[in-house]
Amino acid sequence: xxxxxxxxxxxxxxxxxxxxxxxxxxxxxxxxxxxxxxxxxxxxxxxxxxxxxxxxxxxxxxxxxxxxxxxxxxxxxxxxxxxxxxxxxxxxxxxxxxxxxxxxxxxxxxxxxxxxxxxxxxxxxxxxxxxxxxxxxxxxxxxxxxxxxxxxxxxxxxxxxxxxxxxxxxxxxxxxxxxxxxxxxxxxxxxxxxxxxxxxxxxxxxxxxxxxxxxxxxxxxxxxxxxxxxxxxxx
Length: 235
Description:
2 domains; catalytic activity; 10 helices; Haloacid dehalogenase-like hydrolase domain-containing protein Sgpp; alpha/beta
């Protein structure tokens, strides 16, 4: 039996947004690379994807600001704001759903589960992406890291989601795609299924996910959900 079977009866599924619902990392990478070049970051040499995933992916805006402008948080936060505006322009035209998203959405709906989107993204970004992906009516709650006492990698956003949904950590699991996000979900006491679509698998495994999948069509995911259904039927 899989690591999800013990969650029966399942109450809730929690989703990160960036890189988990929509394939947004290439758009974030493009926006960040262009804007960092403009300010002469790294001597004007474009950042690599590896550097992006290590330093920026899934991180809180304050962390991003201090990488771009060490020691100057105010200027760094202005940079982040401008970068996010560029990302939104790109996302409004180019954001695509993660492969198999409709399939997992249907599974969640058919099981009548509670669901929340939990993200470190600014609210305006998250609402744009959720709307663009046709998920505005899907989620019961949207939890923003900046609106919690602490964002990911701390557990606070996931704990707040459970509280809002009135769901137990013992009967819920998380979909995440970043080291920071997986760390947060695990710290909140839930199994986390990691999407290794963009982030390096070895990095994600360090955060101790229940298991990794390539996307929502990965047979490993559907075997685990089948085990969960069987465990639920046996109760």
